[in-house]
Amino acid sequence: MFGSVPRVLLSSLVLISVTLVLLFVGHVSLGSSRACPRPASGLRDSDVVGEYVGPDGARIALTASGSGSSGDRSFTAEKWPYERPLVYDRKARINGSGHWRIQDYVGGKGTALRLTFDEGPERGHRADLLQLAVGREGGEVMLYEDIDPGSCPSAVFEPAKS
User: Which residue range(s) make up the domain with 58?
Assistant: First the structure.
């Protein structure tokens, strides 16, 4: 079948193809040190309180005081990406603060963290409401941008290590 193609050329093409496949698979699986977080349901505020680290040094600290609807749920963010998708524009970053709340998705198939910044990227302009999915991986709560539920998220915010 490959009689007219020199074996050296054929071997080189096969080697290049295998290398490209391995690089692609390695890039996809090594993009994060963890597997894909799975959606988590029925979470309480206390489950998500803490500090998280995301792509390119983005950080968010979620705090809560009080209980129920009268409690204060605030956050501070550093190097927070404000354009969607979250990981593509490394220049579109802000430091800011605001308020958060969690809510179950319709049908109970996961939890959303909704952030509202007090100030946006330009002084006096409010940043868009931002929603992240809340999931679990290995017993830890993680935040992630759920653009395509059929694939691993590219922007995952893991608990900060002390």
Answer: 38-159
